[in-house]
Write a structure and sequence with these properties.
Blueprint (H helix, E strand, L loop, with lengths): L1 E4 L3 H4 L15 E4 L6 H7 L4 E8 L9 E8 L2 E6 L8 H7 L3 E4 L2 H12 L5 E4 H7 L7 H9 L19 H12 L1 H15 L2 H15 L22 H20 L3 H4 L2 H12 L4 H5 L12 H13 L20 H21 L9 H9 L4 H4 L2 H7 L3 H6 L1
Parallel strand pairs: 2-5, 3-6, 6-7
Antiparallel strand pairs: 1-2, 3-4, 4-5
Helix pairs in contact: 4-9, 5-8, 10-12, 10-14, 15-16
């Protein structure tokens, strides 16, 4: 069965889609039954470009799942319920393999899709990256749609539980709107990039985005518990942090909720720092407030805290070997890093873009350590902006 969701009376007032899209799609198809992908697959066979977005449940479950896929194919919007039982998506990934994608903020989506089915697009236009390269201070989709099309996205959709079924009409409207304006937005941003001579910059950024998305999300390691300011802890502070971090993971997994909803990193660190400072378990627990939702977990937290106090710090997983790229810089290299940073900031200010788009702090440090790595660490457009600046010219 295919559910065609017809326009509300308000949307009928806008009429047919013009050269610039109407504020809302006139209708869309919800594909949520076995065999219901046929209209989407047929539409994909007629085009070379597709607008795509995803909705996930990372705010509500321990393990993130893709819940909904939104497609704009030509003038048709299709919403695919990824969680629908019996709906095979294999033909969809095959049909998308050679399509040019238009997306907004694609990094998280591409990593999700890689981990779901190892999907990797052939080419991409990311409207968020384009807006950043144009120096837009507000580059979120909601801000761009409001600025260019006078359309306001419902903020509730950004915080919704997309794994809940059935999906409400309000959320489906929101999901359809996420892709509806992407081609027109792409055209506007493309024109501005061409005027500034930055279209090639975007193409390079998008190719890099595809490559990083193909890495998926970093797998869990035995050192994930070393959060925030943990490098300042010693002895019992570390054993307590290790114990309560794993306690939080176990509870989050058992409750099927994101770990931060059990308790945040700030609370874990406060507990560990209190132990490091010599406070006793009961004194620490007296200051801990898990909130009404998780008050019942206080007993298991107490047990984890006690286990942390009793553990020998020598039995903790040893820190990974020092990465040679993170060896402390010499004084001369620190001074070179500062000169490169000043050059970068001056160039960025002239171009009216965020300085970290050219090179971030970690990259600056590695360049200062060995300027010959410039072309390996940065994209060609970034290299072209920095290589002839005073600091690197003097260092070469």
């Amino acid at each position: 069965m295919i559910s065609r969701l017809l326009p509300s009376p308000l949307r009928r007032l806008f009429g047919a889609r013009a050269a610039r899209p109407t504020p809302h799609p006139s209708s869309y198809l919800l594909l949520d039954q076995p065999g219901s992908l046929r209209p989407l697959l047929t539409a994909l066979g007629r085009v070379g470009e597709v607008s795509l977005d995803t909705e996930a449940d990372n705010m509500y479950h321990y393990k993130t799942r893709v819940c909904l896929l939104q497609f704009l194919v030509g003038d048709e919007v299709f919403l695919v319920d990824v969680l629908a039982p019996g709906l095979s998506l294999t033909p969809l990934w095959e049909a998308l393999a050679d399509k040019h994608l238009v997306m907004h903020g694609s990094d998280f989506d591409l990593r999700l899709l890689h981990d779901l089915c190892h999907f990797q697009p052939c080419t991409l236009f990311d409207t968020m990256l384009a807006a950043q390269l144009l120096g837009r201070e507000r580059f979120g989709l909601a801000s761009l749609l409001e600025q260019h099309f006078g359309v306001a996205l419902d903020k509730d959709g950004q915080k919704a539980n997309w794994s809940r079924r059935p999906i409400t009409r309000k959320l489906l409207d929101y999901a359809a709107l996420d892709v509806w304006h992407l081609p027109a937005l792409r055209d506007i941003l493309t024109g501005e990039l061409k005027k500034l001579g930055r279209l090639e910059w975007l193409e390079q950024q998008c190719r890099a985005q595809i490559a990083s998305g193909a890495e998926g999300f970093a797998p869990a390691t035995e050192h994930d518990w070393r959060i925030g300011r943990s490098e300042r802890l010693r002895g019992v502070g570390l054993t307590v942090l290790h114990a309560i971090w794993h306690w939080r993971e176990q509870q989050a997994h058992r409750l099927d909720t994101p770990p931060f909803k059990v308790c945040g990193n700030a609370l874990l660190l406060r507990i560990a720092e209190a132990a490091h400072a010599g406070e006793t378990g009961p004194a620490i627990l007296a200051q801990v407030h898990l909130g009404k939702r998780h008050e019942r977990l206080a007993g298991s937290l107490s047990a984890a805290l006690q286990a942390g106090f009793e553990r020998d710090p020598q039995t903790l997983p040893r820190r990974p070997g020092r990465d040679p790229n993170h060896v402390s810089l010499t004084q001369a290299q620190v001074e070179l890093q500062e000169r490169i940073r000043a050059d970068r900031d001056r160039v960025a200010q002239h171009l009216r873009i965020e300085a970290t788009l050219i090179a971030n702090r970690a990259q600056l440090g590695r360049i200062a350590r060995d300027p010959r790595q410039l072309s390996e660490l940065l994209l060609p457009w970034q290299v072209a902006l920095l290589r002839d600046q005073p600091a690197l010219k003097a260092a070469s």
